[in-house]
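Figure 3 (text version): structure tokens given as input.
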């Protein structure tokens, strides 16, 4: 049997007895933030003696940035500024999860804090009512980095074809997917669906549509909940676009986008205008669609199964091998939204949404 982490051997039923104990009027607030690399998450928990009713009622906090490699040794205290509160699906009501921005000791944003500039841009264009929906793909691995559940021996048929699959020869780890879906709903995440993806043990969840900065906040907390649930199961969920380099399938994070104009009668023209602008800035978008300046997507966007080629900008109606797709029903109705298929699974939604707004609404070029 594949190695699993020790914590998943613990008897979870025993834990239930303690989790049910009354809290004496106190409330646990788990502060969640984006890590040094801008790819993972960190958390720590604080007791409040009241239940916060809004984000303003949650105090700022600090952490040791040396421990997370986010600070220098002579300036290690960093600030956690609460920005979005959710219900805690692990320790349940009245406990909270709170997404935080990270500030350095001089109160400027930490390197991986891309939310501040994104928020400024979103505030600037709020009259356009920009909506985003993101399709987060991920792959389940065991602690040794092997795809979760794959048999040692080759099984005919176990080479993909698992998209929306059902059955033990097609999909591995549905328990995690279903727990994550419920936990997100409980928390108040705008999760709008899930499906099995092309590779066995690859899955997808969708968040949205969310307006402006909300998409980044909801997607990051949904990612936190996924990693936290995987802890309970002794499994790793990786957002790396291609953890198995020899295997043709890869993980992306398609982003669907619309403005008020695109959603109203005749909006298809606005959609086509926006796509034209995006086509003129392909390289810039590729450079912000993964956390390594395009290097992650270079492994993924090969023009293979349902991907475009990283070096070309392409678009089409109902075509899944292009950079940007106009869904079939959008073309039919003459309004709606479009799908940019380029962002990598490990993209930072704040960087991706900011770039889309800069190009399509603020008309930035170059
Ligand atoms: P696909 O057919 O590409 O697999 P999905 O069903 O997985 O599409 O995801 C569709 C995404 O589009 C969801 O995240 C949803 O929130 C989003 N979406 C739907 N309508 C809009 C809209 N008007 N503007 C922006 N995003 C939208
Ligand atoms: Mn300490
Ligand atoms: Mn999808
Ligand atoms: Mn998908
Ligand atoms: Mn898609």
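Below: residues designed for each position.
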């Amino acid at each position: 049997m594949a190695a699993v982490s020790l914590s998943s051997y613990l008897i979870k039923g025993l834990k239930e007895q303690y989790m049910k104990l009354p809290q004496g009027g106190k409330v646990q607030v788990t502060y969640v933030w984006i890590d040094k690399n801008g790819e993972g998450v960190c958390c720590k928990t604080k007791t409040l003696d009241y239940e916060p009713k809004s984000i303003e009622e949650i105090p700022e906090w600090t952490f040791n940035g040396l421990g997370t490699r986010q600070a220098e040794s002579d300036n290690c205290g960093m600030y956690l500024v609460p920005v979005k509160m959710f219900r805690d699906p692990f320790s349940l009501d009245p406990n909270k999860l709170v997404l935080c921005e990270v500030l350095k000791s001089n109160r400027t944003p930490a390197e991986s804090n891309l939310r501040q500039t994104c928020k400024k841009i979103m505030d600037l264009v709020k009259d356009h009512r920009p909506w985003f929906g993101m399709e987060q793909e991920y792959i389940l691995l065991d602690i040794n980095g092997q795809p979760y559940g794959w048999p040692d021996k080759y099984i005919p048929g176990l080479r993909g074809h698992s998209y929306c699959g059902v059955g033990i020869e097609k999909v591995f780890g549905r328990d995690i997917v279903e727990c994550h879906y419920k936990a997100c709903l409980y928390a108040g995440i705008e999760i709008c669906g899930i499906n099995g993806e092309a590779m066995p043990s690859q899955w997808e969840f969708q968040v949205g549509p969310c307006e402006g900065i909300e998409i980044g906040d909801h997607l990051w907390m949904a990612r936190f909940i996924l990693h936290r649930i995987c802890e309970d199961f002794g499994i790793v969920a990786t957002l790396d676009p291609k953890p198995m380099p020899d295997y043709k399938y890869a993980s992306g994070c398609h982003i669907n986008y619309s403005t008020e104009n695109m959603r109203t009668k005749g909006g298809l023209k606005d959609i086509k205008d926006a796509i034209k602008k995006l086509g003129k800035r392909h390289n810039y978008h590729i450079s912000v669609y993964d956390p390594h300046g395009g290097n992650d997507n270079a492994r993924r966007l090969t023009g293979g199964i349902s991907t475009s080629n990283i070096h070309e900008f392409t678009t089409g109606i109902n075509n899944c091998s292009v950079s940007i797709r106009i869904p079939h029903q959008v073309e039919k109705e003459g309004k709606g939204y479009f799908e940019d298929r380029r962002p990598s699974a490990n993209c930072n939604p704040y960087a991706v949404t900011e770039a889309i707004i800069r190009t399509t609404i603020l008309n930035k070029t170059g």
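The chain has a mean pLDDT of 93.
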